[in-house]
């Protein structure tokens, strides 16, 4: 008998307008917004270090949300705040630091993105090994098919690079950090009692200190007075944080962790579409084939979970 996470809707979302939106529509928005983060990173590296942009992204989100979250934060117990802060550090600081620092040390961007895209399989393996969760064979088949699609899409941009051997573990560590945060958030019922905005504010607030510590050890934390830097921060604030992380936690509250993670298998081909529109990078039939394979895998996961 399969042991899966409960799919009951969190009380914070009952009666909310987000509950009225079809889940596939939210998942489509998640894929578009999540893939925008890779494009924002590529755009920003021409103007500033990646972690400097991420630091100011967290600072801006914290300042923007503060007036709207003060009251609910005061009404939340310290234990719940502490738990959500820890989840935020894993999901945001751990994930983004692992990927960006790996690239900074010479890990090819395509390989780092592939490591990040192992999230569905990594989360399934962690759940099986640490939580005793048993997934149906069709779900495992869907996850593997999704990964085959990702490999098909990214095959032409993969390379080994010349980074030190230990640096290749950083993107994997970032992926595992997000996987642990996702499973923790899904399992801890009291961690989901906070509203979306207070939770997002808390995660950005605590992560800003982690990014300040890492980036501060490498250079200045002062913002760079340029249009490119400002656009990079605004892009990642709006699309990557409010859109990407916001929709990620919303979908996680309305669905299972396995389904939400598997949907992100569509992130690589959508990222390539972003790159084609913004940077004129070429598309190929290989990318379309990989997207179709990933879509079949995701459909298998969704169908098996409905049963």
TrEMBL record:
Keywords: Cell membrane, Membrane, Transmembrane, Transmembrane helix. One of its GO terms (cellular component) is membrane. Residues 29-153, 166-302 form the EamA domain. It is a multi-pass membrane protein. SUPFAM superfamilies: Multidrug resistance efflux transporter EmrE. The keyword Cell inner membrane does not apply. Belongs to the EamA transporter family. This is Membrane protein.
């Amino acid at each position: 008998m399969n042991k899966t996470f409960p799919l009951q809707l969190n009380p914070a979302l009952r009666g909310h307008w987000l509950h009225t939106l079809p889940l596939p529509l939210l998942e489509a928005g998640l894929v578009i917004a999540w893939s925008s983060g890779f494009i924002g990173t590529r755009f920003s590296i021409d103007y500033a270090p990646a972690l400097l942009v991420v630091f100011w992204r967290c600072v801006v989100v914290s300042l923007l949300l503060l007036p709207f979250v003060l009251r609910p934060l005061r009404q939340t117990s310290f234990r719940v705040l502490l738990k959500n802060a820890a989840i935020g550090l894993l999901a945001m600081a751990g994930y983004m630091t692992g990927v960006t620092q790996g690239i900074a040390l010479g890990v090819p961007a395509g390989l780092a993105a592939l490591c990040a895209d192992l999230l569905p399989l990594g989360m399934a393996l962690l759940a099986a090994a640490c939580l005793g969760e048993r997934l149906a064979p069709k779900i495992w088949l869907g996850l593997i098919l999704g990964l085959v699609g990702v490999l098909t899409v990214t095959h032409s941009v993969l390379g080994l690079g010349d980074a030190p051997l230990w640096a290749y573990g950083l993107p994997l560590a970032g992926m595992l950090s997000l996987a642990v945060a996702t499973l923790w958030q899904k399992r801890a019922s009291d961690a989901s009692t906070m509203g979306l905005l207070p939770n997002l504010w808390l995660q950005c607030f605590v992560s800003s200190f982690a990014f300040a510590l890492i980036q501060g050890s490498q250079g200045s934390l002062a913002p760079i007075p340029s249009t490119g830097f400002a656009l990079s921060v605004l892009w990642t604030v709006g699309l990557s944080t409010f859109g990407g992380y916001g929709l990620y936690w919303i979908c996680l509250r309305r669905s299972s962790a396995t389904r939400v993670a598997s949907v992100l298998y569509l992130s690589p081909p959508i990222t390539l579409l972003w790159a084609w529109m913004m940077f004129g990078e070429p598309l190929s039939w290989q990318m379309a084939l990989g997207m179709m394979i990933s879509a079949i895998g995701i459909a298998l996961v969704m169908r098996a979970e409905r049963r």
